[in-house]
Fold:
Amino acid sequence: MKKKILIAVFTFAFILTIRLFCGVYIHDEFGETHFFIKHRPVWKWEFYSPLGMSDTGIEELPGDEQIEQKYFNEFVRDQGLSR
Structure:
């Protein structure tokens, strides 16, 4: 019984760690999906750029898309992944 509980706790901890420290981003130019390791834990799993490769500014996006673009910039673009 203790072995089953230990395995369940280990599995839960492993899945939680993967969820917090790994993610997927959609490349802003080519639209391909890439797996990456996050530099800090965040619950968000999928990252995409609402701006894409357009010349418009982040100020012109609606509020929720501005937040999404900031996440994309922090976790993908600033880490040198989407170049």
Remarks:
- The chain has a mean pLDDT of 92.
